[in-house]
């Protein structure tokens, strides 16, 4: 049985801990038990920024370069994370909901107990990353790549995974339900994953392409 992702723990958050919009991020900034709402932080460059036991809502981080970003026990709601570069990031007990993540790059990152719901992650990259107990639900993952990533107990539910790249990825105890997989690269890396029988049958063309099976038209006379 696949263990469910751990939810963020936010026991200390209260109205008194609301923060004023942050104007800039600096190297090694640490934010604990805060609520950020509406901060404009696009194109920022900072290393080692850390958020813990916090909530980010409607925050614009588009185009930011945030190496070694760390989020622990954090909820992210309706934020703009498009084209964020977060090499070697650490996300632990994080939920991301209704956010734009087009082109986000989590290269060589670690994601543990993360739930991502109703987000655009098209053209996103998780190359070389470690994902453990991560759930993608109702997400657009078209042309995202998981090159050489390691996925353990990762669930994809109701996602558009058109042309997702799984080459050299390793999947263990993973689950896919009601996902679109047209044009997927590295489909053979799904070996050992779990899918409903109806989905397996519906994706017969994907499996045929991965195995190099030629489809015959009509019956031979």
Element layout with pairings:
Layout: E1 30-32, E2 35-37, E3 50-57, E4 70-77, E5 90-97, E6 110-117, E7 130-137, E8 150-152, E9 155-157, E10 170-172, E11 175-177, H1 197-202, H2 204-211
Parallel strand pairs: 1-3, 2-3, 3-4, 4-5, 5-6, 6-7, 7-8, 7-9, 8-10, 9-11
Q: Low-confidence parts lasting 5 or more residues at pLDDT below 50?
A: 11-17
Oligomeric organization of the protein chains: single chain
Shape, please? elongated
Major sheet summary line: 11 strands, parallel
Structural class: mainly beta
Give the end-to-end Cα distance, rounded to a whole number of Å: 49 Å
Instruction: Calculate Rg over CA atoms.
Output: 19 Å
Average pLDDT figure: 89
The fraction of residues assigned to DSSP E strands is 25-35%
So how many helices?
Answer: 2
Q: Let me know the number of strands.
A: 11
How do the helices and strands follow one another from N- to C-terminus? EEEEEEEEEEEHH
Report the helical percentage. under 10%
In short:
This protein has helices at 197-202, 204-211; strands at 30-32, 35-37, 50-57, 70-77, 90-97, 110-117, 130-137, 150-152, 155-157, 170-172, 175-177.
Description:
Helix content is 6%, strand content 26%. By secondary structure, the protein is mainly beta. Strands 1, 2, 3, 4, 5, 6, 7, 8, 9, 10 and 11 form an 11-stranded parallel β-sheet that branches. The protein is elongated, with a radius of gyration of 19 Å. The model is unreliable at 11-17 (pLDDT under 50).
């Amino acid at each position: 049985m696949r263990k469910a992702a751990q939810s963020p723990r936010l026991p200390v958050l209260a109205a008194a801990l609301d923060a004023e919009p942050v104007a800039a991020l600096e190297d090694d900034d640490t934010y604990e038990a805060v609520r950020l709402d509406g901060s404009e932080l696009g194109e920022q460059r900072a290393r080692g920024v850390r958020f813990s036991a916090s909530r980010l809502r409607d925050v614009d981080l588009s185009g930011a370069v945030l190496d070694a970003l760390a989020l622990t026990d954090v909820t992210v709601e309706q934020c703009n994370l498009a084209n964020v570069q977060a090499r070697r990031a650490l996300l632990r007990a994080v939920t991301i909901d209704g956010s734009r993540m087009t082109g986000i790059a989590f290269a060589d990152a670690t994601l543990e107990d993360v739930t991502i719901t109703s987000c655009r992650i098209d053209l996103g990259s998780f190359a070389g990353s470690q994902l453990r107990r991560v759930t993608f639900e109702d997400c657009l993952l078209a042309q995202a790549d998981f090159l050489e990533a390691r996925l353990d107990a990762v669930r994809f539910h109701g996602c558009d995974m058109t042309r997702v790249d799984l080459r050299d990825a390793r999947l263990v105890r993973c689950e896919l339900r009601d996902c679109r997989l047209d044009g997927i690269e590295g489909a053979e890396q799904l070996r050992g994953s779990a899918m409903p029988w109806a989905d397996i049958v519906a994706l017969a063309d994907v499996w045929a392409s991965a195995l190099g099976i030629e489809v015959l038209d009509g019956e031979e006379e």
